Amino acid sequence: MTFLLQSIFNGLLAGCIYALFAMGLTLIYGVLNFVNFAHGELIMWGAYFLYLFMESPLGLPLPIALIPALCLTILLGLSMDRFAFKPLRQANRLTLLITALGLSFFLRNGAQLFWGAELRTYGFEIKRGWKIFNISITTNQIAIILTTLVCIAVVYLLLHRSRIGKSMRAVSDNLELARVAGINTRRTIRFAWIMSSSLACIGGILLALDTNLQPGMGMINLVKAFAAILLGGVGNIWGALLGGIVIGFAENLGVLIISTGYKDAIAFGIMVLLLLLKPPILYGSQD
Known about the structure:
Elements lengths: L1 H31 L6 H16 L7 H24 L7 H23 L14 E3 L2 E3 L1 H23 L1 H11 L1 H6 L4 H26 L6 H16 L4 H18 L8 H15 L1 H4 L5
Antiparallel strand pairs: 1-2
Helix pairs in contact: 1-5, 1-6, 1-8, 1-9, 1-10, 2-3, 2-4, 2-8, 2-9, 3-8, 5-6, 5-8, 6-8, 9-10, 9-11, 10-11
């Protein structure tokens, strides 16, 4: 029973992180109508940027290091759009897909060249967690849940209580009609990239706090985010939130039945199953 409760709690933690990844990924899909397969590298670089500012010679504490790490990740996201995707705005989806995959390989190998392929951590001292209902809970895990709740609240307020959020929803519904209606679509797209990059950075940092850093962390978590948005409905940000939590639970409860070595394969299996059952979602069909 204790192991089951711990697995449920671990599923909630993983689901919180995957939800941030999926929300960031679906924001770009909603506005630009393409899946950014380089989103995983925003996740990875966001986590490494924090590592850069926390390690010597800078040695900044996490709350202070978070600010420049977030800014650099946003700058990276905006640069991806400006130099890779904006020139191809009118291109077909296959061209955008190939561009995103190429950018993903470039950024992943760049990180490996700079930091190496070995596992890294933020260097926090490992402390014994508290026991609540026989569930071990650490300070980092509490921080993951609270940070996710704050991010969800901020996204909700921005999308539903701000002018730029309403513009994003209008652009998501119909880009050309929004442009005709006088909405500054360039600013709206830029803001969507800022939000998406911020969620990727924060999610990557939370993941690294709970596990570790390595250059390949973006790719596997992109698969999980993609499975989450397929589960929740591509373009539906709140569906992506729910899908991320479901993927987290599926992974951690699945290890009760299968080996932990196949944990990452669960999200991949869910993604393949969804693609086989509902392929029109991926291609934006309204049927």
